[in-house]
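Readers outside the structure-tokenisation community will struggle with the description of the input data as it stands. For illustration, here is how one protein appears when written out as sequence plus structure tokens:
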Amino acid sequence: IKMRGKATEGEKTMLDALCPALKALQDDVAVGKSLKEALADAASAAEKGVEYTKTIIATKGRASYLGERSVGHQDPGATSALYLLQVLAEMA
């Protein structure tokens, strides 16, 4: 996703949810937590990432056209990534 979209964390994209989720998942696996716990923590980290997108200016995608007006709105891509992780966590 990073290569294809030429985006990084902090640019108000789905990566702002996925990157913290991946880190939380990797950390939990490293300490031996169960898959259910790891996915729950990943979803929680993604939720914090989505909240973070409300505080930053969009620099990628359609929202970038809004510039400073994008502040205060959560990124829809990050939100959809969060929903996917929440469903995974529920099903584990």
